[in-house]
Amino acid sequence: MKKQILIVGSGFAGMWAAVSAARLSEMHGNKSLAITVLAPVPELRVRPRFYEEKVSTLVAPLTGLFAELNIEFIAGQAERIDTAEKIVFYRTPEGTDAFVSWERLILATGSQTKRPQIAGLAEYALDIDQLESAQVFEQHLDSLALRPSTPERNTVVVCGGGFTGIELATELPARLRALFGSDTETKIIVVERGAVIGGRYSEALRETIEEACQALGVEWRLNSEIEAIDACGVTLKNGERIAASTVVWTAGVEANPLSQQIEGERDNQGRLIVTETLQVPAHPEVYATGDMAHAKTDEAGNTALMTCQHAIQLGKFAGHNAAASLLNIAPCPYRQVNYVTCLDLGAWGAVYTEGWEQAVKSVREEAKKIKIAITNELIYPPAADKNVAFAAADPLAKFV
C-alpha cells in the first residue's frame, strides 16, 4: 500500500510542495508514494495581482500539471485535523463530510486579512484578500460609474499602508479615471497608523513610494486609526470624518485558522514555528509551509515573509523533505538567502530593491518591466511537462 503525502492547499506553497514531492519520488524510482492535494478547486489563484482589474482571469488551472505528474486532487474544504489518527476531515463541494488519511501532512492553506472588531468593518468594508472578495470589489467599482458624480462617490479610502495597500492605492487613480472620465476629480486616501509612509521599508524605498504617491495624487493620513466604518465613509479615532462610497480594508494578515488545530508554538501572525526542515516540532510528521510557517531564511536571523516569493521556495522544500522522510533520504534544510522587493506603483511605474537592506536598484518603467515579468510569468505554474516541472521544483535551484 502506498504511503500518503497529503498537501492541504493549492496555492503557491501547496502546488510547489506537490510537484517537489513528485520530483523526488520519481528521481529515486520509487512508486510507493501517493501524493494528494486537497483544496476547494484545482487552480492556483494569483493573489499578488488581485489589486488589478479583470481579477477573474488571475487564476491558473492545475489539472493538467497534476495529471502529468500523477498527483491526485481532491476537491474539498479542510475542516478538522486529527494528528493522532493522521486524518484530515473535509467538506466536499456537494456539502457532504469526508476524510483522507496521511503519513505526512503538509499544511499550505495560506493566510487571510485580519479583520478586527471595528464598528461597521464587516458590513461596509471591502477587501481584495481572496478571489471572491476581489471580484466583489471590482463589481463595486464598476457600479460606481452608474451613480451621479459626487465627492463621496469619487473617494476611495484604503485602510492600511502595507504592501497591498500601497499597490492598490497607486493603481486606483488610473482605474477611476477610466471609469469616471479624466475630467472627474477623484481622491485616494490611505489611512495608516504608522508615523511615516512605508514604515517597515528602507529609507530609499520609502522615499520612492512617497514620490510616486505625490505624483499620482494619493493622500496619506499618518498616525491615524479607524474608529468606525459606515455606508458613507469612515470616522478616524482623532475625530476626522472622510466621506467615501468605497472603503477597502488591507491592514494586517494572519495564518489560516487551521494552524490553530496543530499543537505548537506560533508567532504573532499565527504561523507555526517550524524546524529548518519545516517540520512542526511537536508533530514531526506535519510540515508547515508558505504563509503557515514561521521559518528562518538564513543564518543572519531573517525569517520568511508572507509573500509568494517565500511561499514558492518554502513549498519546494516542504514537498522535498516530506517525501525524503518516507524514502529514508536526508532532508534539505530550508534556506533562501536572496531577497528582493518589487512594488507596483501604478501609472508612475514600480520600484525594485535587492537584499534585506532594500537597496533600490531600479524605478519607474524599468522596474515596471521587472514587476510584470515576476507577476505575469515567473510566479505562474510550470508547463504540464514532467521535465520542465521537475527542473523548476528543485529546492536547491536558484529562484531569485
Automatic annotation (TrEMBL):
- Which co-factors does it depend on? FAD
The answer, when asked if Cell cycle is one of the entry's keywords, is no
Which keywords does this chain's UniProt record carry?
FAD, Flavoprotein, Oxidoreductase, Signal
Q: Which Gene3D superfamilies match?
A: 3.50.50.100
Which Pfam families does the UniProt record give? Pyr_redox_2
* Enzyme Commission designation: 1.6.5.-
Which part of the chain is the FAD/NAD(P)-binding domain?
A: 4-313
Q: Which domain of life is it from?
A: Bacteria
GO MF terms, alphabetically ordered: oxidoreductase activity
Signal peptide (UniProt feature, chain positions): 1-21
Which family is annotated? Belongs to the NADH dehydrogenase family.
Q: PANTHER family, from UniProt?
A: 64 KDA MITOCHONDRIAL NADH DEHYDROGENASE (EUROFUNG), APOPTOSIS-INDUCING FACTOR 1
Query: What is this protein's record name?
Result: NAD(P)/FAD-dependent oxidoreductase
